[in-house]
Amino acid sequence: MFNTSDIATVANGDVYGPDNDKIGSVGQVYLDNKTGNPEWVTVKTGLFGTKASFVPLSEASVSGEDVHVPYAKDKVKDAPKVDADGELSPQEEDELYRYYGVDGAGLDSGSDDREANRETARETPVAPVAGGVDERVGDTNDRDGRERDGRERDGRDEVTRTEGHDTSGPNTDEAMTRSEEQLDVGTRTEETGRARLRKYVVTEQQSVEVPVSHEEVRIEREPITDANRGAAEHGADISEEEHEVTLHAERPVVDTETVAVERVKLGTETVQDTETVTSDVRKEQVEVDDDGAGRTERRDR
């Protein structure tokens, strides 16, 4: 169960759904102005946490600095869109209760003066702050219904909040703060694909020139000399005779052998590139309304 003491604990935490699936980071906790109990928490979702969705705390639990709710991420992201910049009206709260299928906490459904209860059952945001200091945002009411115009006391000092006022009052100084949203752009590494290295066998023809030799017949004649006269005159004077010579020739012989030629493996390299990210941001502008001069002048930064 989520208690008021848990607000400071979850200041820097995240919101998780069933199966420990992260939905987003904790934004603001909304208190019931009538009971003072935590009723809602906003969850920052979307790209870089630029969107906020309301989640009821009636069935929430706290683990460490994280909030666990029984709603899936898609359920939370598709919740009715309500601006998380002020009080949560009864109509907006009823719409959210119907969406999540939760009975309206803080409203007496069996009372005849339900409409009167609805007017005092507004939800007011409290910014979770680590260390136990909770800053109430906007005008609030005491539990007995008395209006406090946004003041919180810690026993010593008074903290005043006048967010949303467009005219000077007793709680404002001579200046107003102009704010604007800025893109907080980062990167994340995600898997884009897989590469596989495999080898296979192909057959191709190769032609190689091989030098070969062969023997050819030629007739050699030598004159009769004293050295060969005996061999020349041996035998009959006139006769028929036949001599035979064996010829030789080289022929190409083809064989194959397997030789390791190289080692191949996969590697990666990082290539720097740029991408354009486009998102909407809001900013405040000021204008001067000069009643004396009868003109309105815009002043942009």
Give the structure's gist in a few sentences.
The protein is mainly beta and 301 residues long. 9% of the residues lie in helices and 19% in strands.
Write a concise keyword list for the protein shown above.
single chain; 301 residues; mainly beta; eight-stranded mixed β-sheet
SSE topology sketch:
Blueprint: E1 14-16, E2 22-32, E3 38-45, E4 51-56, E5 61-63, E6 66-68, H1 73-77, H2 90-100, H3 114-120, E7 123-127, E8 135-136, E9 151-153, E10 158-160, H4 229-232, E11 286-290, E12 295-299
Parallel strand pairs: 1-6
Antiparallel strand pairs: 1-2, 2-3, 2-7, 3-4, 5-6, 7-8, 9-10, 11-12
Summarize the structure in words.
By secondary structure, the chain is mainly β. Helices cover 9% and strands 19% of the residues. It is built from four helices and twelve strands, in the order ββββββαααββββαββ. The two termini are 47 Å apart. Residues 105-121 and 129-169 have low confidence and may be disordered. The strands form three sheets. Strands 1, 2, 3, 4, 5, 6, 7 and 8 form an eight-stranded mixed beta sheet that branches. Strands 9-10 form a two-stranded antiparallel sheet. It has a two-stranded antiparallel sheet with strand order 11-12. 16% of the residues are buried. The chain has helices at residues 73-77, 90-100, 114-120, 229-232, and strands at residues 14-16, 22-32, 38-45, 51-56, 61-63, 66-68, 123-127, 135-136, 151-153, 158-160, 286-290, 295-299.
